[in-house]
């Protein structure tokens, strides 16, 4: 269909369709169904072709959003995928799990429903795979430079793919049995089926990227060997040290970190056998998820599928507003109340709740003591003051507690301490503006460098680091800076 500059006046927003709750909680298949090409084109017409497209400003990857929307709407799918892949190495991933910062910066969103940018992105890449547009294109010449990328999450994968395009010989080291990092082990299959990841990794392997799995650099091989065997190294191991809740009763059994829970669930779904004494299983249990973010929501959805008797999620902060406030005006990304597909499947949610104590019986958690919070008072800077509400203490019955309260910084012991890289004030790997660490020839990107963040930021970081590495080795670079 032809692009219509007034399409946003004629076509209403139509989001993805989701499978019925009663059906999807019985399996780990994707919770949504893909749109047809026709419907994607109709939604692409809603893009206004703004004079100043703020969606660019909102997207860490710098996607050419109005351009590929117009191309898709007009049926120019091959050109659309060229533009999409020019800025994003993993659009099939961001098209599924990105919180779509771009949509909150969409000009149409000022007084109407924003354009379905993320879903349009997904429509383009899935059409491209379906039609065979995505082919392995190995570099015509090799530079003779060898680069090691440590970590195969979104930052490491994007960095490796870009450096390979530049003609360097790239080896990706991953301590787990299969590549993908958090994409494979941290995100449930019902949000990101792993065949999607395998499909892309296969293309990169055919293009010449080598993956060495089950290699924990700093343990299975000496960290210093990286400096001896490679011309440059990119550290992209993520932020894996979880934030703990060190309160009374923390030592009782039945309390786990969210990533341990999600990782084990993904391993089980892939067919891996978990020893009975190591099993974290919600079947028939009263599950409490502490932490109200996306990771907590993933734990809620996983607990539903494992057959928990009931699921509750608590958050220490107040319930966010459902609409923008003056403090979160357009085009800023607003902190709003969101209901994920996991929340739609059942369970309870409570806000402004502080966890005070874990209560065990015969060494296993049975209850959690909590108190309600009040954030109505402000300090001199206008920041909310957290106060416990007198007499509001209460208990939550729980047989399984999942801590989904974020991460502190990357794991220091082993690789990072062996390489003697400097850390910033938050414990992340410190780099200069060109992503180089305090050690010559060693770079860093993604959560390991910037702290826990979004997949789209990790992709952007990996690409920027690749540009810097290529320029450092060759004197100049034809890779895009973003």
CATH topology of the largest domain: FAD/NAD(P)-binding domain
Round the mean pLDDT to the nearest integer and report it.
96
**Widest sheet, order of strands:** 5-4-3-6-18
Helix/strand structural class: alpha/beta
Q: What percent of residues adopt helix (DSSP H or I)?
A: 25-40%
The coarse overall form would be: globular
Question: Total number of β-strand segments?
Answer: 18
Give me the number of helical elements. 19
**What's the Cα radius of gyration?**
23 Å
CATH architecture descriptor name of the largest domain: 3-Layer(bba) Sandwich
- Would you identify the CATH H-level superfamily of the largest domain? FAD/NAD(P)-binding domain
What does this structure look like?
With 482 residues, the protein is α/β, with parallel strands linked by helices. It has 3 domains: 7-130, Fumarate Reductase Iron-sulfur Protein, Chain B, domain 2, CATH 1.10.1060.10; 146-240 and 408-474, FAD/NAD(P)-binding domain (3-Layer(bba) Sandwich); 244-405, FAD/NAD(P)-binding domain, CATH 3.50.50.60. It has helices spanning 7-10, 21-24, 37-44, 54-58, 65-73, 77-85, 91-97, 101-104, 117-130, 154-165, 182-185, 194-207, 224-229, 258-269, 294-305, 341-344, 415-419, 447-450, 455-474, and strands at residues 17-18, 32-33, 146-150, 169-174, 210-213, 232-235, 241-242, 255-257, 286-290, 310-314, 348-350, 353-361, 364-374, 387-388, 394-397, 400-403, 407-409, 442-444. It has a 5-stranded parallel sheet with strand order 5-4-3-6-18. Strand 10 (310-314), helix 16 (341-344) and strand 11 form a beta-alpha-beta unit. Helix 3 (37-44) packs across helix 5 (65-73), helix 5 crosses helix 9 and helix 6 (77-85) crosses helix 9. The longest helix is centred in the C-terminal third of the chain and has 20 residues, at 455-474. The chain starts with 6 loop residues before the first helix and ends in an 8-residue tail after the last helix. The mean pLDDT is 96.
């Amino acid at each position: 269909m032809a692009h219509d500059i007034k399409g946003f006046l004629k076509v209403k927003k139509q989001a993805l369709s989701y499978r019925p709750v009663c059906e999807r909680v019985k399996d780990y298949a994707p919770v949504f169904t893909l749109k047809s090409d026709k419907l994607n084109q109709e939604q692409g017409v809603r893009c206004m072709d703004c004079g100043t497209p703020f969606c660019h400003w909102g997207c860490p990857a710098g996607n050419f959003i109005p351009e590929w929307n117009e191309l898709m709407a007009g049926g120019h799918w091959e050109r659309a995928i060229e533009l999409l892949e020019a800025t994003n190495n993993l659009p099939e991933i961001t098209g599924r799990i990105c919180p779509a910062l771009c949509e909150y910066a969409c000009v149409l969103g000022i007084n109407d429903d924003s354009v379905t940018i993320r879903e349009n992105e997904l429509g383009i890449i899935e059409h491209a795979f379906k039609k065979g547009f995505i082919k392995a294109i190995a570099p015509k010449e090799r530079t003779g430079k060898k680069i090691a990328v440590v970590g195969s999450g979104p930052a490491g994968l994007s960095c490796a793919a870009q450096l390979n395009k530049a003609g360097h010989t790239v080896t990706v080291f991953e301590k787990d049995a299969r590549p993908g990092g958090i994409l494979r082990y941290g995100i449930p299959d019902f949000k990101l089926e792993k065949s999607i990841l395998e499909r892309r990794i296969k293309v990169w392997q055919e293009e010449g990227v080598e993956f060495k799995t089950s290699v924990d650099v700093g343990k299975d091989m000496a960290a210093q060997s990286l400096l001896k065997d490679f011309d440059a190294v990119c550290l992209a191991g993520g932020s894996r040290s979880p934030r703990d809740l060190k309160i009374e009763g923390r030592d009782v059994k039945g309390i786990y970190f969210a990533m341990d829970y999600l990782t084990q669930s993904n391993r089980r779904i892939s067919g891996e056998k978990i020893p009975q004494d190591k099993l974290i299983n919600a079947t028939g249990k009263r599950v409490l998820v502490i932490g109200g973010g996306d990771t907590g929501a993933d734990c809620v959805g996983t607990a539903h599928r494992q057959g928990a008797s009931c699921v509750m999620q608590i958050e220490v902060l107040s319930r966010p507003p459902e609409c923008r406030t003056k403090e979160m005006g357009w085009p800023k990304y607003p902190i709003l109340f969101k209901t994920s597909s996991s929340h739609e499947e059942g369970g309870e949610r409570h806000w402004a709740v502080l966890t005070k104590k874990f209560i065990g019986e015969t060494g296993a958690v049975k209850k959690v003591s909590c108190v309600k919070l009040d954030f109505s008072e402000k300090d001199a800077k206008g920041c909310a003051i957290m106060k416990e509400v007198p007499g509001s203490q209460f208990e939550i019955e729980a047989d399984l507690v999942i801590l989904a309260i974020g991460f502190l910084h990357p794991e220091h012991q082993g690789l990072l301490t062996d390489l003697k890289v400097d850390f910033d004030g938050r414990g992340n790997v410190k780099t200069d503006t060109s992503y180089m660490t305090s050690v010559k020839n060693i770079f860093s990107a993604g959560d390991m460098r910037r702290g826990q963040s979004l997949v789209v930021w990790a992709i952007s970081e990996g690409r920027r680091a690749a540009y810097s590495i290529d320029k450092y080795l060759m004197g100049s670079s034809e890779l895009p800076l973003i």
